[in-house]
């Protein structure tokens, strides 16, 4: 499948919509998609006509995370992953996730790097890193304790707890939940309203909010990627 088809990019006024579009793979993200998505982040960051970017998925899943079925050079793969996560950290515009179904792995961890997250009632959030024999990524070792507390973060990242949409709302991981058939229509009114706010004011406020933690996020990403590399090196020797 062409990369242009696996990542759909559209515009609606000052809003850019980016869709993970591999429904047959539950929108799993492969290396070429990471590269394209990172490029979209960087292009949009410098596009004065865009004030809001929306991430969502096609079909029943938001995204099942990293596509482990695709063979890749691990060193290069981790470098691509690091740049993808850094793109979230450095993004200066409002970043909204419309979670239309389950979000797993990197798809779940990067939600904590978004500004607003709206989810379908049938979505869930699952980070089975220790079950897979790897370590947490997406800055989640920093963002999860800060966002949902140490206990819940431990359940998610260490014990592979699958968090429901209701639970995610209760602990502050997401902003709101909707019935699947109402998600898109009800959320878009809010997104359109945000997109019409004065862009200079919005950008300055986001900068103030993010500047306090940006260096810590970049550091967390560095450390997590290094630990992932250490794990893969150990596995390669077994």
From TrEMBL:
Family matches, as Pfam families: ECH_1
Cellular component, GO annotation: peroxisome
Places the protein is found: Peroxisome
CDD domains per record: crotonase-like
Domain of life of the source: Eukaryota
Signal peptide range: none
Keywords: Isomerase, Peroxisome
Record GO terms (molecular function): delta(3)-delta(2)-enoyl-CoA isomerase activity
InterPro entries reported for this sequence: ClpP/crotonase-like_dom_sf, ECH/Chromodomain_protein, Enoyl-CoA_hydra/iso, Enoyl-CoA_hydra_C
Name of the molecule in the record: Enoyl-CoA delta isomerase 2, mitochondrial
Organism: Chrysodeixis includens (Soybean looper)
């Amino acid at each position: 499948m062409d990369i242009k088809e696996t990542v759909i990019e559209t515009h609606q006024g000052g809003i850019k919509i980016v869709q993970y579009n591999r429904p047959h793979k539950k929108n799993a993200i492969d290396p070429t998609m990471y590269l394209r998505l990172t490029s979209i982040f960087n292009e949009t960051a410098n596009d004065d006509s865009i004030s809001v970017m929306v991430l969502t998925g096609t079909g029943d899943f938001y995204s099942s995370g990293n596509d482990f079925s695709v063979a890749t050079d691990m060193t290069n793969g981790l470098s691509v992953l690091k740049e993808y996560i850094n793109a979230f950290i450095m993004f200066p515009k409002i970043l909204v996730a419309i979670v239309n179904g389950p979000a797993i792995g990197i798809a779940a961890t990067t939600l904590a790097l978004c500004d607003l997250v709206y989810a379908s009632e049938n979505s869930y959030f699952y980070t089975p890193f220790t079950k897979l024999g790897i370590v947490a990524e997406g800055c989640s070792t920093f963002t999860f304790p800060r966002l949902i507390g140490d206990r819940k973060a431990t359940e998610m990242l260490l014990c592979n707890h699958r968090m429901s949409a209701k639970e995610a709302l209760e602990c502050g991981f997401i902003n709101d939940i909707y019935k699947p058939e109402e998600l898109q229509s009800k959320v878009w009114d809010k997104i359109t309203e945000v997109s019409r706010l004065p862009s200079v004011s919005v950008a300055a406020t986001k900068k103030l909010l993010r500047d306090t933690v940006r260096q810590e996020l970049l550091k967390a990403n560095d450390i997590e990627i290094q630990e992932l590399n250490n794990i893969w090196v150990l596995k390669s020797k077994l």
